[in-house]
Amino acid sequence: MCNLREHTAMSSISPRDAEWRQELRDAMPAKERTAIPRAKMAMLDPEYRIHCNEEVNQGLSADQAHVEASRCLDCPDPQCVTGCPVNIDIPGFIKNIQRGDMAMAAAVLRNTSALPAVCGRVCPQERQCESKCIYNKMKKEPVAIGWLERFAADTERELAERPAPERLAPKGIKVAVAGSGPCSLSFAGDMAKRGYDVTVYEALHEIGGVLKYGIPEFRLPNSVVDAELDSLRDLGVKFIADTIVGKTLSYDDLMNEGYKAIFVASGAGLPRFMGIPGENFINILSSNEYLTRINLMHAGTPGFATPVPRGANVAVIGGGNTAMDSVRTALRMGAKKAMLVYRRSEEEMPARREEVLHAKEEGVEFMTLSNPVEYLADEKGHVRAMRVQRMELGEPDASGRRSPVPIEGAIDEIPVDVVIVSVGVSPNPLIPNSFNGLEVTKRGTIAVDEQLHASIPTIFAGGDIVRGGATVILAMGDGRHAAASMDEYLQSISE
Ligand code: FAD
Ligand code: SF4
Hints:
Blueprint: H1 4-7, H2 15-27, H3 30-34, H4 46-49, H5 62-71, H6 79-83, H7 90-98, H8 102-112, H9 116-122, H10 145-158, E1 174-178, H11 182-193, E2 197-201, H12 210-213, H13 222-234, E3 238-240, H14 251-256, E4 259-264, E5 270-271, E6 284-286, H15 287-296, E7 313-317, H16 321-332, E8 337-341, H17 353-361, E9 365-367, E10 370-377, E11 383-396, E12 402-415, E13 418-421, E14 425-426, H18 430-434, E15 459-461, H19 464-467, H20 472-494
Parallel strand pairs: 1-2, 1-4, 2-3, 4-15, 6-13, 7-8, 7-13, 8-9
Antiparallel strand pairs: 5-14, 10-11, 11-12
The chain binds flavin-adenine dinucleotide and iron/sulfur cluster.
Flavin-adenine dinucleotide binds at residues 122-123, 178-184, 201-204, 209-210, 214-215, 244-246, 265-267, 269, 291, 321-322, 325, 352, 428, 430-431, 463-464, 470-473, 475.
């Protein structure tokens, strides 16, 4: 597996930067900075937001961002940077916000992150950069790095004069990309800037991968993703939807069209089920299907005919971000009771802390230490109840989390009309099965070397199809790493 830390170099501070940054440090003593409380972001009221799809987090105001940026101590050895999977120069962008140079703040971010407005919204900052901020050691709330990232990226979008990205002269070399999620988008941007002729093929009718079909509007508005897509189009990247690589277009078709290499970033979109009795009853579906119907096919929006199961009692099985997105979506689709059924305790939930809090504010019922063991149906085959095994925590398992152990005889029957299963995903096997000679791992992910080079010389791969399900920032980091590797490979074969 590639090492992103080795791949992304930390930016060094120029003497000029050092000068103004010292001035900022001198202007306010550290004691004064650390006395400033962390900013509070404005949020939509829960009563209002569960009836609409508007973005819950409203962003920081310019004044709030300035004050929050001044909390940052500009540490000489900033540990926050080591907590970021792609080592963004965090104090560098924050100090530019403090001095009001928003174009430079965004430029520092874009040095390492292709999608800062997206990452500022969806990265698990509390487990990454913010968990390493020196304020934690002082028993104070960390600098709101993620909110400041979002602020810098959003403000840059509104700047009248955005600096055009530098692009090398066209090389006349065509490369193809399979999939259009964050991994592909960061790859495509880097390759276009290097002068390659990039075409992205997407199986679905919309470009954006999970950013569009998975993560709901109330967490990541489509307009934010669309703005990033427009920037890529400005760089010359071509997007072709409704095209399944490996089916609509075979490997040979792509080679015959003159592509010199292919980047596969087809994600891990194959839902898993639990394999328990009754899981095939009507109105039991995967999170992927549920969210895709609503987010991409507009189920529930007036004027659209896409069907989606609705009910008064909706149970979502799982404890990750996908489960949290599904259960909050179910509330917005009119569920009277939206339950999150998770076999461990809240402490072990992989979902972002913020999503857990928002779900609770919105009235989601958390049924932790509970695991469905069977579904029951009415005479027409519609699910009507689930039998839930109550659990307790035992010894830690391989993941380091305490494993759930059934409490003998503790099984309850709970009425449900709709069940959304969100217990994980697997890599889509279509490309591995259709590209002859493409090696896969035991988990079904595409096997790659340190350079993200696959077993077929013309193929590179990254993101969830290699990692088997990860995060936006890791997928994006892979895209950048693969672009550097493919560029090197294409130069080596043209010499
Ligand atoms: P994807 O985003 O999955 O994109 C792959 C694309 O390839 C898809 O559009 C797919 O249709 C397309 N494709 C597949 N096969 C083919 C083919 N044969 N030909 C052409 N196209 C093809 N991560 C976070 O960091 N924070 C979060 O808050 C978060 N929330 C999430 C919520 C949900 C509901 C889900 C599902 C995931 C979430 N994640 C989150 C995880 C994150 O979104 C993924 O790790 C990331 O999107 C992976 O990026 P990717 O580009 O590898 O794949
Ligand atoms: Fe600023 Fe915290 Fe990073 Fe120090 S650790 S540079 S205070 S964000």
